[in-house]
């Protein structure tokens, strides 16, 4: 294992045992993610992206292979990881601030400092003034931003995100992409992001893992060699377009148009 490798998968596979028999979700995968790296995963619906993320989070056991975080096998929920799920998963009876503070309660973090950090994160995510509102009083995009704040509250070194911006309008999504780039470069977090958006994957990532149809396997891994920090106009450049064409070709070759 290279010194700066943080997450390493060797022959990691997943077969779900359902009542109708085994469902092969992921074929053996090999990849490694370096400390501080931003890696995205793109692939057709049902190819096992969420499955992969849940295994890295330690929420789901692997069926074969070895999966390590900082050299230690991942055998259960990981402390130093923040997770943003595909839906916001906020508790309806708690205010937005209290939903974010749930992270601190579970981890028994000092209250006053956690509240201060929650407020700073809400400010960053454009949620200032909504601290005492309930989830049902917020738009879907705002709820998802609150769930990102919750994932960041304990300042984890690894951030796992499952299609976190899928429910946002295009303009808010671009704003969140910029914010995420800023947070990532300021905090040197290691990010694994699942997205259906090829431009989002290219814009944010050091490397993009392309997965093939179910049962998922890695079709290709691309280095995105664009200078940082990346302004939004980088999306209009020829180099960006070339990356987008290369990535899209995978999905057209599979007869899939899942990526938009
Ligand atoms: N608990 C489960 N039991 C049995 N099969 C499952 C279970 N969870 C997922 N699967 C199967 O594993 C496959 C991968 O599911 P997963 O949720 O990882 O896909 P995904 O790539 O995240 O898709 P999407 O882009 O639609 O979110 C699916 O085909 C699904 O049928
Ligand atoms: Mg999924």
UniProtKB/TrEMBL annotation:
Gene Ontology MF term list: ATP binding
Sequence similarity: Belongs to the ABC transporter superfamily.
Organism: Variovorax ginsengisoli
InterPro entries: AAA+_ATPase (IPR003593), ABC_transporter-like_ATP-bd (IPR003439), ABC_transporter-like_CS (IPR017871), ABC_transporter_ATP-bind (IPR050166), P-loop_NTPase (IPR027417)
Pfam families attached to this UniProt entry: ABC_tran
Keywords: ATP-binding, Cell membrane, Membrane, Nucleotide-binding, Transport
Record carries keyword Cell membrane: yes
Domain ABC transporter positions: 7-238
Name of the protein in its database record: ABC transporter ATP-binding protein
Source taxon at top rank: Bacteria
């Amino acid at each position: 294992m290279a010194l700066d490798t943080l997450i390493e998968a060797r022959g990691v596979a997943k077969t779900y045992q359902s009542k109708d028999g085994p469902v092969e979700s992921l074929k053996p995968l090999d990849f490694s993610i370096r400390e501080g790296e931003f890696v995205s995963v793109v692939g057709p619906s049902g190819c096992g992206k969420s499955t992969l993320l849940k295994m890295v989070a330690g929420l789901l056991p692997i069926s074969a292979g070895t999966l390590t975080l900082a050299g230690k096998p991942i055998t259960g929920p990981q402390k130093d990881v923040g997770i943003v799920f595909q839906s916001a998963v906020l508790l309806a009876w708690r205010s937005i601030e209290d939903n974010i503070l749930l992270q601190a309660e579970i981890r028994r973090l000092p209250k006053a400092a956690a509240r201060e950090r929650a407020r700073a994160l809400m400010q960053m995510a454009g949620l200032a003034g909504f601290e005492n509102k309930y989830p049902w009083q917020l738009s879907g995009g705002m709820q998802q931003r609150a769930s990102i704040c919750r994932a960041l509250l304990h300042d984890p070194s690894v951030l796992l995100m499952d299609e976190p911006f899928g429910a946002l309008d295009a303009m808010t999504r671009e704003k969140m992409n910029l914010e995420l780039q800023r947070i990532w470069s300021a905090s040197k977090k290691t990010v694994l992001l699942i997205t259906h958006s090829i431009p989002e994957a290219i814009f944010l990532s050091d490397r993009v893992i392309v997965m093939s149809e179910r049962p998922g396997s890695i079709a290709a891994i691309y280095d995105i060699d664009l200078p940082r920090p990346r302004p939004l106009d980088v999306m209009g450049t020829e180099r960006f377009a070339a990356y987008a064409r290369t990535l899209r070709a995978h999905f057209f070759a599979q007869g899939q148009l899942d990526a938009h």
